[in-house]
Amino acid sequence: MESGYTITFAALGSQFLVGLSRAMILFIVSSGMSLVLGVLRVPNVAHGSLYMIGAFAAFSISSLFGGGSTGFWLALVFAPLVVALISFVAERSLFRHLYEREHLMLLLFTFALMLILGDLVKMFWGADYRSIMAPEMFQGAVPIFGSPFPKYNLFLLGVGPLVAVLLWLFITKTKIGKISRAAAVDMEMVGAIGINVSWVFAFAFVLGCLLAGLGGALVSPTVSITLGMDHDIIMEAFLIVAIGGLGNMWGALVGSLIFGLTQSFGVLFWPQFAIVFPYAAVVIVLTWRPKGILKSVW
């Protein structure tokens, strides 16, 4: 913190909201990874690449429909579906043959897939930076705590909890959600009663990847869409899942809040070393609770 700089309540409140909005993106992406980890036991390093594809697909769809509000909303709907289609093809052709393999092999396989997807993105979209304009209704800022706060960030603050509630309802209240939870605990028993576990796994994998694509589409108006944006998010998502509890959706939410808020307050208190704060929080949490804050499903 710079000498003579006074931290006000308004500044704290503003940074808190900034951290929350960042945490919502992290949660949407990491909840998808947590779902895949919890049900399929697959540490999917390529999850970040699907996030990047979601952002590029959102750019293409938005541009196809002339940008603006119409282009943005269509991109928000169809970009995750593009990612879901890609993940379905990958799961049916590749992943379903590897579920019984050890985790190290799965880790290496998904790392190789991440490199392949990165090259395909470069071939298809090129290496130029891209960007999307937020809809007119979300442009500009509103005064909160005496400081201007972007309207689009307020939108993210609403989307994050909505995704959390819908995902919880799906996992706990729907038949396929309950079957997915059962398959995660005892795959053989689920198969013994006549349920096609392979398609249950496919559905869980596609849903988890769709969330990665949704995160990429949502973040696209706030960042430059470029190659390499998958690297940072995959590292953060893995750490969030680890400190929250492997495969625990609510743990992913808690981990995202820790990561987003520590990063935001780090910018306020010590901007030169702001990047250190989230990782220091991860070290503290894992030292205190090596298996994560909430119960791991592993």
UniProtKB/TrEMBL annotation:
Cell membrane listed as a keyword: yes
Record-stated family: Belongs to the binding-protein-dependent transport system permease family. LivHM subfamily.
Organism expressing this protein natively: Candidatus Desulfacyla euxinica
Topology class, membrane: Multi-pass membrane protein
Subcellular location: Cell membrane
GO terms of molecular function: transmembrane transporter activity
Keyword annotations of the record: Amino-acid transport, Cell membrane, Membrane, Transmembrane, Transmembrane helix, Transport
One GO cellular component term noted in the UniProt record for this chain: plasma membrane
Membrane-spanning intervals of the chain: 20-42, 49-66, 72-91, 103-125, 152-171, 192-217, 237-261, 268-288
Protein name, per record: Branched-chain amino acid ABC transporter permease
Any single GO BP term: amino acid transport
